[in-house]
Amino acid sequence: MIKKKPGHISKKKTFGYSIGLLVAALVGTNIYLTNQNKSLVDEIANLRKNTVVTEVVDGDTLQLANGQRIRLSNLEAPELENCGGAEAKKKLKELVEGKSVRSEFVDVDRFRRSIGLIYIGKVLVNEVMLREGLARYDGTPTKERDKLKTAYDFAFDNKIGIFSSKCLALKPDIQGCLIKGNISRKSKQDKTYHFPDCSAYDQVMVEKDLGESWFCSEKEAENAGYVKSENCFGRTFKAIRK
After folding, report:
1. 158 lies in the same domain as 176
2. Same structural domain, 104 and 204
């Protein structure tokens, strides 16, 4: 007879225990997913109802009377502190605050906000915001995508709103302050600055609705969180003497 060491557990028992844990984990996951799906279904159902807008948070986000917060699909308005941000919020308030709107669910963003198309009667609010140049377009697949892209193109081609010289700064705010701050579209944390001796300097635009700016010195740009572009090849900005 073979004696087992104290605390020894047979392979069969270990296997059975492992299977039990796996089953429990799968059941727990299924319950979680079921609850998540039910919550999402309820959210979509609520959005389909006409609901009064109680608050406009910014140029692309609003609060509904049922407690839901929804962001407008296919667009991104400037942050409130950036060029055009206050104007976008003001326009959205004029359009929807205190009014009954119909929302069509599109998706959920990383902040768990619903994303959708907003209608007042037959008016598509998303389209109005884009046509008046108060937001940038994104190509999220929706039934209104082509209409919204056309509205964006109209504002861009006619230099309306954030696409006008007010926010698209082709000249420095202060004479001689020629350093351009550029923020990456892929990562807002990727911020570089460029000056006349850097290659591709002429192709860099300062788009103030995105938070970009002109700077008078490299130190000023660096203090604002920008780093020298690799296209500058170790060169140093030489300020123009008056």
Report:
1. no
2. no
Are residue 154 and residue 181 in the same domain, yes or no?
no
Task: Specify burial of residue 108 (Cβ count, 10 A radius: 0-12, 13-18, 19+).
Answer: middle
Q: What share of the chain is helix, strand, coil (3-state, %, to 5)?
A: 35, 20, 40
- 195-224 tens-digit pLDDT: 999 998 999 999 999 999 999 999 999 999
Higher per-residue confidence, 16 vs 57: 57
Question: Model confidence over 17-37: pLDDT tens digits?
Answer: 555 555 555 555 555 444 445
115 within 8 A of 169, measured Cβ to Cβ: no
Alpha carbons within 13 angstroms on the beta-carbon side of residue 114 total 25
**Other Cβ atoms within 10 Å of 22 Cβ, number:** 10
Structural domain span for residue 225? 169-232
Tally the domains of the chain.
2
What is the amino acid identity at position 37? N
Give catalytic residue positions.
71, 79, 113
Entry pTM: 0.77
User: What's the CA gap between 20 and 184, in Å, rounded?
Assistant: 49
